[in-house]
Amino acid sequence: MSVIVFAENSEGLFKKSTLEAVFYAHELGKxxxxxxxAISIGQVDEVQLKMLATYGADQIISFNQTxxxxxxxxxxxxxxANTAKNSNAKHIVFANTYTGKLIAPRVAGILNAAMASGVIxxxxxxxxxxxxRTVFSGKAIADVELNAQxxxxxxxxNTFTIFxxxxxxxxxxxxxxxxxxxxxxxxxxxxxxxxxxxxxxxxLVVSAGRGMxxxxxxxxxxxxxDLLGAATACSKPVSDMHWRPHSEHVGQTGITIKxxxxxxxxxxxxxxxxxxxxxSKVIVxxxxxxxxxFFKAADYGIVGDAFEVLPQLIEAAKSIQS
Length: 322
Ligand SMILES: Cc1cc2nc3c(=O)[nH]c(=O)nc-3n(C[C@H](O)[C@H](O)[C@H](O)COP(=O)(O)OP(=O)(O)OC[C@H]3O[C@@H](n4cnc5c(N)ncnc54)[C@H](O)[C@@H]3O)c2cc1C
Description:
There is one protein chain. This protein is of the alpha/beta class. It has 2 domains: 2-182, Rossmann fold; 204-321, TPP-binding domain (Rossmann fold, 3-Layer(aba) Sandwich). It is built from 10 helices and 16 strands. The protein has helices at 16-32, 46-54, 66-69, 73-86, 98-111, 218-228, 236-240, 271-274, 294-297, 306-321, and strands at 2-7, 9-10, 13-14, 35-41, 59-63, 91-95, 114-119, 130-135, 140-145, 151-155, 170-174, 204-208, 231-234, 261-265, 282-287, 300-303. The strands form 4 sheets. The chain has a 7-stranded parallel beta sheet with strand order 7-10-6-1-4-5-11, sandwiched between helices. The protein has a 5-stranded parallel beta sheet with strand order 13-12-14-15-16. A two-stranded antiparallel ribbon has the order 2-3. It is globular. The N and C termini lie far apart (54 Å). Residues 209-211, 235-238, 251-254, 266-268, 270, 272-273, 276, 287-289, 292, 305-307 line the site of flavin-adenine dinucleotide.
């Protein structure tokens, strides 16, 4: 028996969230005394596949054919579940990413598994199999017991620190036995934003709110973000007023992010905004109102006018680069 982990790739590259899932599966394997098998579906080269061993996979299974190279949640779930069943797996790990959220519940359905998503801890095995997960937009933590034979854990990205384990894993290349006709949906066209750092993957985020007064002032936000190699984000009213695209809206009704650094400029820090950003490792708030609620959630605060502070930050970022 093995712990099986889904190794999600993005255009042939494994993301940080995938390596976190593999490392988690390796650690879980140590707890339940099983080895760790990583399953990759799609076009991924050997160098990337070997990286899964670096973070704890004992065995790597790769499906890399034309039929499986285009993402389809139904096809991927059926193929993954079938492989897990053949390995008699009782512990399954996913990263709780957009892709993970599409596949993991389907796999749980096929395998009749108990599933917990957004998991932030390894299981406590003292009394059953109990994991911690965040609930109510991160404002509370629930202990959840998984009591079916097959247990599926979907881990919250950016929660687990990973270390190199450097195993020498075997790589097995298998052909999919699942026919593409099982898929009831088909992607016809994919249009992607190019040249921008994806907000969900960004380690650094520069975000701004209504305090910026209007879209014409976002040049400063973008300049600072470019200098830092950061993604840009915004509060809900800013996207509602079409100052910025909705894809940048973070918070309870927007995207949840956990970057290493979140710089919030001219954002009040309403609870609905904090719900999407409060797990960031370091939060810097810039606000002219010393009573702004964001200062209570921030690690560092600058009380000042954004239109005076931002040019200074930009100059400081430029001087570090030169
Ligand atoms: C059901 C529900 C869901 C919601 N979901 C979300 C969500 O997902 N995300 C979200 O962001 N909001 C959400 N909201 C809205 C949220 O409650 C706040 O209204 C919103 O976050 C406020 O946005 P803001 O901070 O940009 O604007 P404001 O509240 O107007 O705050 C602007 C801030 O900028 C400061 N400021 C002004 N001028 C300057 C200056 N020159 N320099 C520096 N600082 C300045 C002000 O002191 C103030 O603190 C939701 C609300 C509800 C009811």
